[in-house]
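Subject: mismatched residue count in predicted assembly?

I count 805 residues in my input, but I want to confirm that the predicted structure covers every chain. Input:
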Amino acid sequence: MDKMKDENISAMCTCAVGEAGRTGDWRSFRPVIDHSKCIPHQKGKAACFLCWLYCPEGVVKATIPIAIDLTYCKGCGICAEECPAKAITMVREEDHE
Amino acid sequence: MSRVEIMTGNQAAALGARLARVQVVAAYPITPQTSLTEALAQFIESGEMKAEYVRVEGEHSALSVCIAASTVGARAFTATSANGLLYMHEQIHWAAGSRLPIVMCCVNRGVGAPWTILNDQQDSISQRDTGWIQLYCRDNQEIIDTVIQAFRIAEAVYVPVMVCYDGFVLSHTLMPVEIPDAERVDAFLPPYRPHTILSEADPRTINPVMFADPRENAAGVLGDGYMEMRYKLAGALTEALKTIQDVSDEYARLFGRNHGGLLWEYKTEDAEVILTGMGSIANEATIAADILREKGVPAGVVGIRAYRPFPVEAITHAFRKAKSIHCLEKALSYGFAGPIYTDLRAALYGSGCEAAMHDYIASLGGRDIQPDTIAQVVFERVIKPEADGRFHAPLWINCRTE
Amino acid sequence: MPETLFKINAKEYILPGNRSCQGCGLSLAYRMALKALREKTIMVIGPSCLCVLHGLYPSTAVMVPGLNTTFASAGAAASGLVAGLRALGRDDETVVAFIGDGGTFDMGIQSLSGAAERQTDFIYVCYDNEGYMNTGTQRSSATPLGAITSTTPLLAKEEHKKDLVRIMEAHEVPYIATANPAYPIDLYDKFVKAKKIKGTRYLHLFIPCPPGWGFPPKDTIRLGRLAVETGVFPLFEIENGRFRFTGRSRALAERGHKIPVSNYLERQARFGRMTPAQVQVFQQWVDRRWEEYVRRAEADAKHFSP
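Triage response: the counts match. Full output below for your records.
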């Protein structure tokens, strides 16, 4: 095996995305955004962004339009629950395609 | 300029730590270590020693403080005895697995229950499997020299070092000690370079949970499994055999005192009967060897200085001509035999050494042991040989066994 | 000065795809805390959910230097980092211990007390999910009365939650605060404030745990709010001995009414065995503590008036 080896004499982890793998695979439900209802999208400027604030995983991007990284979103549903405009719906993965 | 002063073993150890320019001390008082801890507090509060002194609330915390301080790159020192050592047992493993060059003095004392405050070596012996280097000192001069050498050894191989010496017998007994010159010590001890990475630019999480098997990280670098990490530690202890000897030899050249490195020998050139032990009892054994010689028994002593790593090669060489070996123990692995006896038998098996081996539990909990008692017991064994190489249970000397 | 959502540090310090559960209260709290603490932070972590969130060798999800230590030793490890950094002349790094209720209330209480008593200059954060959640929801002394855990499976916990805040107050530390990821800006502000203070700073975080407490992950924020609305977990600061409610708890204390605890308890399966009598005992405990805090807030406002 000619892979590079960690030569350190004690265990010291390096930073990596996806330390637990593709956590998007954990989902049973995925968040779907209706941008027409989304407040910053309607206003065309920074506003609300509570979905970004409350996401435990930090996978919601506070951009216009809002973007959610579905590779890693675990589908907890907090964003849908907390959105004051009810712009996010949790849709069953099987029903989504 | 070096000078000679009369001091106790604890004072010698404290001075060794001070000369080594220790940067963080965290120690909890326990008899018979206490005056070592107090001496360091005195040095630091008076400004004679520039170090952070963390007055921890217990021994487990004492070693935890040293581990963290050593991780960021500070030279760290602690000391304890008996139940204090046992209280920090989990952290003793942690320090070795973290590969941190911490130096700890173990002022040997028997462990409870029942309580004793007096000397034996059960405390440090019970820690022999943790991956620490263990060095045993026979007198106060050796204590100050070994504490200094310990930092050099530890920081070369990244393994923590336990400097052991007998409680009360050495820790509280006054002896003349030559204090090494501070500038020479500075030249002997280069600054500590930590291997740990704690940096903004490369943020690491240190000592996480590991899987059994090697795993690749995101960049394709193969990381160890737990067993590989342990293999590396084992390798470092093996490497330390040479380091301990080299450091001892270099120290002898610079400071004029040679404590033997891995082990020392007394009149072994023509010895058929070899006594062996660790610490002050090995010193007593030299007097017993002289008494035996007066009785016509060609006796000598091998003093084991490095108990871990166990110096198999040096031991095999030192005992090669012995016809009988007499192990003077201050500890016992209950249900088996004394630590020196069992490790010696394991090391010598198959080496060609055909000596009869005898195990003596010589002193526990401060039971006094005199050279003439040692000489008497060994003499009786030597003149009435049931001599064979088989395992025999230890003889408890100087103890009411009926 | 309170921040608004748009002014908080936009940088993310936790990489996605980590091992925390869906809807983990700790994930959100840690995310906000790290934003507030920013750079030059060294974290001490214990064997706990956070250890797993940080990741298993060879990778970590957290872009902050972290030192794992044993269960009992967080306070001592932090003390060692502080001492080592000081000995090396490095004085611009903040040492933070981010430890669960097990490592704070139970096994770690001695080393925390020792560190606080020595006025160690560090931030100690207890993230309180009210049990040993990483190992499967065993009971801790932070588990509330009436909760089912794997070691109180049938009788449910018979003792009230230990009051760690009062224990920390007894150490006369300069800053104590409670915080809750359901109020993330309040949490963020408290970390920003704590970072600037010297001495031992103690932050106690309320961490809803979906699998451990038995509620759907989408309700983490709702539960956090209910804890505050019922007075189960009031938001406050104690700065140099002065007690002040903050955020929603202040509004409740000054002009609102807290709602009955049943609103909070009925949403969690762990309280499913509580009898009405036990709910009443729980309500009385919450009421008594709330009234003590309200009296304290009024008294301190007068006593410490500028």
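Chain A touches chain B at residues 1, 3-6, 8-18 (CB under 8 Å). Marking this ticket as 'not a bug'.
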